[in-house]
């Protein structure tokens, strides 16, 4: 930044001499074309059919389970995430995209959705609505993580949050909704579940954990030693091989759970049994966000041999303190889950890898009516007629930049058009339009003023 300022200042005081020649010169071609920012990807048209499938499944599932949509801003005060997600979490400590605005506010791109949804719930007085308030969202999240397969700096999450209710059936239904959503997409998944107890019972467990890992300190990496000090539960999440081995002997949280948490956890599991959701108890599942307590869970794709895929497709849990921590009423329990849509899409792509992705895109762009034109007059009239169809809410395919009728008809066929409306010079002069039945090859001439209605009738006959 200072460098730019300096250059700007320099050029302001010392204007460059411009010659007639340099004024005329066209801008130089850059040595390297600009690429998308590391860890952030384009979603190209060929991938859109998969994304559409996933987004539709999210929307439909949210509707069935009674969640209302909420959209929150991509940018929030940094304090929201420090207070909400937790200061000593990787997400806040290392991965926040934070910046100061021109007005001096400290803001960040959201790394996840729950903190924002809770902020909105408090800010808009949703505590006064009948509880639970059930909200869902879908949108991009940002984490400055090391990009790798399945891990991006901008990624899409869809989340369901049930606020203001502490019944374990809420936890179970969130798990069931996520599991069903994946199943709807053809992904068989298994849920890893654990209970983190309450803040108090967890404190005792934390102490036991710290004592255990302290006794093994020599085997810990520098990073893990830091975790031991700041956020010992996160040690259980470490991918470090030494920790993986040490974990086997580490104290397990179930042995430290308070009675109430234990019985709530049992009820969650009973509900899952009732519906037949496959789950695995994972005593070391802790999740990377500080706000969780009691139930936590993660979804993993079940491979053929029941081995679980490496990366979680989603996860969630109960966060009974977060609403209060963000300024809401005391005793406002809540639970939620979120799914990583990039990973789900990538699984669907793997599952469909024998299909031609371009065909899927073509299938998506199928259109019953094509508007063809011939000659300048025909093209002009067709352009105006397109607007009439648009106003009437009738989707129409066209190829206005093509003059040749044969190539237009080829496109009409590719788009699956059943009828082509054709306008040439003669039709413009006569005030008519030709409607061609693409399958039968028959044609009829209609008054151009009635063509929208005629097409409407034909489309209606398709519905019957
Ligand atoms: P979390 O908000 O960390 O609980 O993550 C919920 C889900 O979002 C994970 O299970 C992943 O599927 C997905 N996810 C989290 N971080 C990333 C990332 N950096 N890139 C892609 N997906 C992610």
TrEMBL record:
It is found in: Cytoplasm. CDD domains: HisRS-like_core. It catalyses: tRNA(His) + L-histidine + ATP = L-histidyl-tRNA(His) + AMP + diphosphate + H(+). Residues 58-357 form the Aminoacyl-transfer RNA synthetases class-II family profile domain. Pfam families: HGTP_anticodon (PF03129), tRNA-synt_His (PF13393). Keywords: Aminoacyl-tRNA synthetase, ATP-binding, Cytoplasm, Ligase, Nucleotide-binding, Protein biosynthesis. HAMAP family: His_tRNA_synth (MF_00127). NCBIfam families: hisS (TIGR00442). This is Histidine--tRNA ligase. It comes from Candidatus Uhrbacteria bacterium CG22_combo_CG10-13_8_21_14_all_47_17. The lineage of its organism: Bacteria, Candidatus Uhriibacteriota. The gene is hisS.
